[in-house]
Amino acid sequence: MLCKLLKNTVHAGKTIVLVGLGNVLRHDDGVGVYLAQNIHPGFNIHVINVEASIENYIGKINSYLPDLLILMDCVFYNRKPGYSRLSPVTDLIGYTTNTHNIALKNISNLFTAQTFILGIQPDNVSLGEGLSTPVLKKAEHLVQKINSCFLANNSSLL
């Protein structure tokens, strides 16, 4: 679903903004930051690392005039660590994110773009640096998947 959504958006000539959220000083809460640091931007594809302060980047995100906005963060789904889900941000009812000053469901109202959350179930959000093994494995898999999807997209646009 993720690659199809990304490819369809780029092929339609639309703009994608991927936003990495989280606190790297709380282990797995930094997974969105890890994703943003490792996903390669491309044609009509922008990647922004906002850490725990998305509210400070609203203007920058909107300046790209995104058609598709994907917020990447840890989400407590009450599933096995490393579980991931891509869903409309409005589906976050009943699930929590960790360290944001503003709830992602509420902040999505500040954007006109279709907004999704790419959430990963954390294992450890205590104080400390580094991702747990299951979350790191999932993050590496997602980076590879997203980058290869964009690479395929960008080469087909040439």
Which structural traits does this protein have?
158 residues, alpha/beta, 5 helices, Rossmann fold, five-stranded mixed sheet
Structural class: alpha/beta
Query: Number of DSSP strands?
Result: 5
What is the CATH-assigned architecture?
3-Layer(aba) Sandwich
- CATH topology descriptor: Rossmann fold
Percentage beta strand? 15-25%
| Tally of DSSP helical segments | 5
Overall outline: globular
Per CATH, the class reads: Alpha Beta
Mean of residue pLDDT?
A: 89
State the helical fraction.
Answer: 25-40%
Low-confidence stretches: none
Walk me through this protein's architecture.
The chain is an alpha/beta fold and 158 residues long. It has one domain (2-152): 3-Layer(aba) Sandwich (Rossmann fold). It is 34% helix and 20% strand. It has five helices and five strands. The protein has helices at 2-11, 31-38, 58-63, 104-107, 133-157, and strands at 16-21, 45-51, 68-74, 84-88, 114-120. A five-stranded mixed sheet has the order 2-1-3-5-4. β1, α2 (31-38) and β2 (45-51) form a beta-alpha-beta unit. α1 runs parallel beside α5 (133-157). The protein is globular. The mean pLDDT is 89.
What's a quick, concise take on this entry?
The protein has 158 residues and is of the alpha/beta class. The chain is built from 5 helices and 5 strands.
Secondary structure: elements and pairs:
Blueprint: H1 2-11, E1 16-21, H2 31-38, E2 45-51, H3 58-63, E3 68-74, E4 84-88, H4 104-107, E5 114-120, H5 133-157
Parallel strand pairs: 1-2, 1-3, 3-5
Antiparallel strand pairs: 4-5
